[in-house]
Amino acid sequence: MPSLPRPGPRGLSPRRNRRPLPQIRVPVARAIVDCAVYIDGRRQPGRVSYTEGLARVRAAGKGFVWVGLHAPDDAQMADVGATFGLHELVVEDAVHAHQRPKLEVYDDTQFLVLRTVQYVEHETMAKASEVVETGEIMVFAGPDFVLTVRHGEHTELSELRRHLETHPDRLALGPTAVLHAVADKVVDSYLAVTDRMDADVAAIEEVVFGRQGHSLDIDPVYLLRREVLELRRAVTPLATPLQSLTASGNPLVPKEIRRQFRDVADHLTTVIDRVLEYDELLTSLLQAAAAKVGIQQSTDMRKISAWVAIAAVPTMVAGIYGMNFDHMPELHQEWGYPVVLACLVALCAALFVVFRRSHWL
TM segments (predicted)? Predict the structure, then answer.
């Protein structure tokens, strides 16, 4: 027979007396997707860590290191922030997502937060549970480094990095060239999403105004408006950071990069105009749908009232003749029953015709 475990102090079981296990520290390399050194716009051969890459760049006195991270935890981001001299506030923001689009400058380091969006495929709006999926990209651009921190599964930048590496003249402009490329990619995704949402808005408009006489499901209208509001919260606040990046008084952005940021700002203006148009249109559609639902409910109540009135006639007659009295008119006549039935049918048919002509049925 196995022996029982001995009780701990004060009668507590050994399991309760155990100390909590220390959390396992995950290496920073687990969060790093890619790390490379770029000198004169060209990627240097070999694989380097972020500390080795920064040391190589500063030893050479030119170029920059680009480190890409995906969803780092507090300890991982703290190590990276200490290596690159980042402020503790932006380090905390990089770990905890759900930030508003913004641009913050700490000495010679720019911190840009971008909200990313992706269109979610669906057959129809009636079957959709989500239209827009959001994520987040944060970019730290210093004199000799770029850090891109991603949150979300659709925020990959590997294709963008490969594209930039085929244009060393752009990478030769420095870390702000990467900052511009990431912002341009995100804003282009906004345009792609709004193009796809045109069909959804048109489908909702057709449902609201094109199905006369049929029941209307108002839930898809609420769903699409909620998704448009989420897209609006991701897109609209980015206008202010882009204005700061295109300002002529910004010494951290070269003149050529500022010109390219103006093109990004123009595209963002187009997106904002579309989103605001969607918002206004869906608000009108929501009001129209609510009015149509109210009319449908009123029509249904008229139909119910008409059928109740028709059913009241035989109910009343049946109630009268159901009373147990001996002396009632025509109670013992052989032709009384068929006459009553004929009268009931005639009265019900007359009421049906009246309600039909009044468009209650």
Answer: 304-323, 335-355
